[in-house]
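Same chain as my last thread, 239 residues:
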Amino acid sequence: MILYPAIDLKDGRCVRLLRGAMDQATVYNDDPAAQAASFAAAGFSWLHLVDLDGALHGRAVNGAAVAAILAAVDLPVQLGGGIRDMAAIERWLAAGVRRVILGTVALRDPDLVRAAGRRFPGRIAVGIDARGGRVAVEGWVETAETTALDLARRVEDAGVAALVYTDIDRDGTLSGVNVAATADLARAVSIPVIASGGVAGVADIHAVRATGVIAGVVVGRALYDGRLTAADALAALAA
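reply #2:
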């Protein structure tokens, strides 16, 4: 299992949202590259980046911050937020992003996901962000009728490397990972599933790991608030 410390970018700064609400942003670092370097020094093996403004506007907005992070660390990076066409996918992969995460476009244009999966094997992930079990898109502003499981099954043959499943109702709340729903999704499809949203402490990492079917977990506010140290998180991973 892999731990992914999260760097969510808004207005060029490192923030955390509460249940995806853009007006509920807490700024944790004005220098995202320094934050990335801190995570690298702590021993994490991946970074999870989200261009929050990009997700809302459908195009890269915090590109300068992402570029600064890529220049500051050697860790593999997965990036989501506003990546809606093949040109954007190509641009970010060429810039050094290891894996791009397709969210809104996975629902709107599944053919693009399949084309990208064929063209860039192992470097495409799909972000499934769910509110009440239904997929939310366009920066989580719109909620579709499609369920998380329906979308996962639609892209199962698309050649994607992973699904990042976010329970929006728990994101940024420190209320605990929705382990049951994430594990059910992981058992229902053949694509590795990464849990996101709600990590409150080391117990969540143990719970996710104990399922034996969840491939990774994104950790955000708990790290920034000091409720979970990098050392304890990585120790739980290795236990």
